[in-house]
Amino acid sequence: MRESLIVKRSNVEKFYKTWQYGAVMSEDLSWVYSLKTIAVVGASRDKKKPSHYVPKYLKEKGYTVIPVNPSASEILGETCYSRLEDIPSLADIVLVFRPSEQIPEVLSGILQVNPQVLWMQLGIKNEEVKKEAETHGIFVVMDKCMMQEHKQIFGD
b/e for 34-63, b at 16 or more Cβ within 10 A? Predict the structure, then answer.
C-alpha cells in the first residue's frame, strides 16, 4: 500500500509542475476524480447549501464522503466527525467549505490527515495554507467547485 501512495504522489508532482505554470484546464483535473475518499470540512445538513448538495452529488457518483462538522452527528447518512483528526480512516481528498479566513484553523487537521489533494470550494482561497500544504506534498485546488468540475470533465 505504501508503494501505491508513493506512485500516486509521484504522479501528483509531475502534474503539479504543469499546474504551476498555468497550463492546466478543467480536463486536467480528471486525475483527482480517480481518488475515491473525500473528507468534507463544513458539510451541512441544510439541503439548500452547496456544502450539502455538492457532497451529496459526489456520494451519488460513487465517492466515499466523510462529513466533518462539530454540530452534527450524521450528514447524508454518514457518521459526521467533529474534526479531521477524528476520522478513523484515510481521506484521499479534503474538500473545504469554510470561509477563506477560517482555513488556517483546519490546517493542522489537514496536515495530520495528509490527503493527496486539498480542495477549497468555489469562492474559497488562502495562499498561506496553499503554500504550507504544498510543502507537505499536498496538491491544492482553490476557488473551484468540485461538482461543477466533475460535470464539466465527465459531461454529467
Answer: ebebbbbbbbbeeeeebbbebbbbbbeeeb
Please state the rounded mean pLDDT for residues 104-108: 95
Q: What are the structural domains, with CATH classification, of the chain?
A: 2-154 (3.40.50.720)
- Residue 81 burial (CB count, 10 A): 21
C-alpha cell recorded at residue 103: 482555513
pLDDT tops 70 at residue 24: no
Give yes or no for residue 85 having a pLDDT over 50. Answer: yes
Looking only at the bridges linking them, the beta strands covering 64-68 and 37-41 are: parallel
- Decide: pTM greater than 0.70: yes
Name, in order, each residue with C-beta under 8 angstroms of 107's C-beta and a sequence gap of 6 or more: 129, 132, 133
Average pLDDT over every residue of 52-70: 98
Q: What's the pLDDT at 39? A: 98
